[in-house]
Amino acid sequence: MTKAGKKKTRLIIRTIVLLLLVSAVVYTIASKDKVKVLAVGDKAPDFELVDLEGNKHRLSDYKGEGVFLNFWGTWCPPCKKEMPYIERQHNAFAEKGVHVLSVNIAEPHLKVETFRDQYGLTFPIVIDKSKSVMEVFNVGILPATYLINKDGKIEQIITREMSEDEIISFMESIQPE
Amino acid sequence: MSKIKCQCGHDNPFGTVLCERCGRPQTEEAKESKLVDMRYEGSARRSQTYKRSIIDKIWNFFSSVKIGISIIVAVLTTAAIGTIFPQKLYVPVSGEAELAAYYERLYGIPGTIYYKLGFHDMYNSWWFITLIGMLGTSIIIASVDRVIPLYKSLKKQRTKRHPSFMKRQRIYGEGPSENPDDALIEAEGQLKELRYKVKTEDGALLAEKNRFSRWGPYVNHAGLIIFLFGILLRGIPGFYVDETMWIREGETRSIPGAEGYYLESKAFIIENYTKEEADEVFGDALERVGMIAKNYQTDVTLYKKEEGSLPGSNQTNFVKDYSIIVNKPLKFDGYNVFQMDFRLDELKSMTFKLTEKATDASFGEFTVDLTNPEREYELDNGARVILSDYYPDYDGIENGEPTSKSPIPNNPAFIFKMVTPAKPDGEMSFVAIKQTLETEVNDYKVNFVSAETRDISGLTVRKDKTLYLLLVGGIIFMIGVSQGSYWNHRRIWIQKGPDGGLLVAGHTNKNWFSLKKELDKVKDAANLPSYEDRQDKESNLDDKEVDKI
Amino acid sequence: MGLAALSANLLLVSFIAYLVATLFFGGAVKGAKSEASYKNNRWGKIAITITIIGFITHVGYFVTRWMASGHAPVSNMFEFTTAFGMMLVGAFILLFYLYRTPSLGLFALPIAIIIIGYASMFPREITPLIPALKSYWLTVHVITAALGESILAISAVAGLIYLLKNIDLTKKSKQRFWLEAVIFTLILVVGFVLSSSAFKLTGYEAHFTYTDKNEQLAKIEYNYPPLFGMHEYESLTPDVMTPWAEMPPIVNAKTLTTFVWSIASGILLYLILRLIFRRPIAALLQPFAKKANSQLMDEIGYRAVMIGFPVFTLGALIFAMIWAHEAWSRFWGWDPKEVWALITWLFYAAFLHLRLSRGWEGEKSAWLAVIGFIIIMFNLIAVNLIIAGLHSYA
Hints:
The structure holds 3 protein chains of 3 kinds. Chain A has 2 domains: about 1-35; about 50-175, Glutaredoxin (3-Layer(aba) Sandwich).
């Protein structure tokens, strides 16, 4: 090999090694505190939960239609606030192919039932007793709402209280044409 | 970059201090010094060779041991600063505002400064990680730069060295010999007995042993790199799981981070050493300290969801029963579940009785399961109690409605409807701990009788696929560091001098004391000229003083 | 006699044996005229024999205590520190037979004596194991770590001898100041042991209640007259002195009181010694170091690091990580004790690199060895007692 050629090879090798090491450090800094989370665009994992009447509900039952998946608790004030809006829009959108599926996190049957009756909710409410669906969806704080489109992909994740207008636009966003 | 041609005819790379082949000094400095620097055999470190582009400059920066040591000292110092006050991890509050308040409250102004500078989370800070990265870079580059030339020059070394090389060794002796050829043969025999590998060439002898110990540092650095690489991998999702879960006695929960696995807690057990069992041996200690914990244990059953079933469905298969105790985690499928914490005595159920206020006559007792309460409780004499609503963690009344601040039964409150033959429409009563509210004056009331509690286990779930890699790194490090520390590379050169005498020189990378002991044996056996250790001025003086006497 | 009592007596015997052996080593060094007589004189032989007897009884203490309690006696400060002293003597015996240097014994034994004396200031009763310690890794990790540290400590002893011999104590210099400072620190420890024993003999006790940093009411017992009071303290013992000042909740006023008493008694002891001898204490010790061969001390110092470093790595880092993974679910958690073990390791790594690549031999190397020992002692004493962490079992 010529002298110049050798020099070039050396430069290339050294550059690559240094770049690799720098990216390793950058990667470590960037990846700290991060765990595997469900992200927008991922396929929503299927699950099977039982509602207050003992009927099974699967996410895959709604294939081809939009699902407004809402995790909540009776003790959580923002959850309570948005419930009436969700109920109203559920009625408005059910015909248009957007369904509300509401998942209570491991509360007593009695408590959920009382709540439903008090708020006059008509959409299906399932209880995640072992918190396994909550784990699968990485639900940290309540309320958490996952908008799932007709292809079963997550369109958006909302981890705060929603206004009625927002709920309308969210439901529109997953409405199958 | 030109090569350096030695007088012996060998072409040495630029930067060489001692000729790779014959050992003649090549630099002015080396020629003038009395003792030669034998580090890396006086070979040219690669980094010293080229200093052109910016990349070469960065490379050379990391190749320097001086820089390496500076990085070590920097890591050491930052690590030490991180122990002045507790790290964020060990502080019982979370959230930025709370943390700031915590450090200020406990440690005053220094605490605030510590927090502001980010020292409370030192080991996750970008600068600390960068320092570790620089350390790794330095280890890789400095090792590569040295190991290759060292390997080459040890491979190329010639048996016969130039006298100028011999004279500059720390152990050196010269003197006349009656029969140099015999002496060389005797020496060879003795050296072989001492397990040296001996090569001879043209009236010169090179005895060498434990050359492999020279590779020790590079092996241990490789181990360190593997270890650091393993730590890097933990950032990749799926390689590393670290979750905590709280599970109540009787509860079945999905294991966070371990999809498809469920854990049922059967019981939490806490034991202390008792005076009776801990006999006379531990009596004094128990007397002084009071209670000493003996065991924390959670008895669990592990379930796995049915193959193909979905999360949430209760089709699960029994896997195993296990008692998780400290130091004995539950292990399955690469996961470890550890006993880490506990909370005692959370309310589990409450028992009440329904009585008539006027007569105190009872209709019997009923028990409300606080995690899964029933709607109706049938009592004696046609009475029943309907649980209209339930607030597990009652927090006062807001907008005319009782609220619960969490789903945990810390402070349960109930709305009971008491239906009795005398009041078939029922009377409403709000019952909380130490409190009963009635909308109108009732004839009947629900009295608290007793409560049952249960314990909660705090468990940590871990999966770490990098552990084996880390272990391999650790083992390789140990091999390397042992090979470099417990063996040493020794060489002895003996050759005929220009005027019929003998020249003797010795070198070792460490433990000169043992080299000298071995050389003494060879000297006695082969009648070699005596040598001196040019760094040990005191022994030589001692010897001379003894000679005078 | 029960095993526990036997164990305590054996420890006492070994303590006395080390004291006597030190005197004989002193005789060996003083009496030596030449290199040859220095290495093989009769005093030296008697001294090493007594040392070995002391070591055997010390091991006897260790074994009988192990039998009595059913676990390796390394589970609290007293046990660990005593074991550390034992291994220090063991490491010295090993190196003595490699190099035959009475001077090493003359300095290693007093340091072992101080360490054992310091250990016995902690509660000595046998405690049962708490759940976190119930593992065979307790035996494996702690013993290996202590062994590594004790071998590293020998390098500091050799370093100290090197410095005493080679630093010119007749002229004022930075080196002279720092050497005297090191010796002063050793005297402080002796001061602590003496004052603590004195108050123990008189049976001094003062009880207080106070508010801890979690705002809980707690009780505390002082064994020294309370110079500083805990946060919102109330005295329970009548007729004890009123503390000079009340401390905020994060400061352990008891530790501070003990610390101030030790410093005060240490300074007093130092001043008395200075008054009697009218010379720096280092100068007083120098003649005992003069006989040692500098090159050999440098070599012993380096060799001890070479032997001790891999042992320390294995015990204090690798075994520690394996156990931490079993017990605390993570192999590394940045607990202060862990961090200081890492700091110790990094320090010795720097030591080796400086020596191998930058040629730091002789005096520089000796200073580093002494600093290394200070770091080890800091990890043993300060981290356990001042910086609270998972390791503060004592």
